[in-house]
Design a protein that fits this description.
Length: 73
């Protein structure tokens, strides 16, 4: 299954739940793991260097996640 199809299937499955708590939990977990990831990159950027994914890709992903999922005051 492609990443695109897997994410769409997840959203579809969560949307069928009678209580939309699954979306809230998923949103919170995505935000938290991005926070942990960004802290780790700041503390030890060398650990995030690899031939496939540059740390800047995580930073870019974080910006997108924050734009769309962050809890606004």
């Amino acid at each position: 299954m492609t990443n695109d199809k897997a994410i769409k299937a997840l959203v579809k499955a969560l949307d069928k739940q009678p209580v939309q708590l699954g979306f809230a939990l998923l949103r919170e977990r995505i935000l938290k793991i991005m926070e942990i990831t960004m802290e780790s990159i700041e503390e030890n950027p060398e650990a995030w260097q690899n031939p496939f994914i540059h740390p800047d890709m995580y930073k870019s992903l974080n910006e997108i996640v924050q734009e769309h999922l962050a809890f606004k005051d």
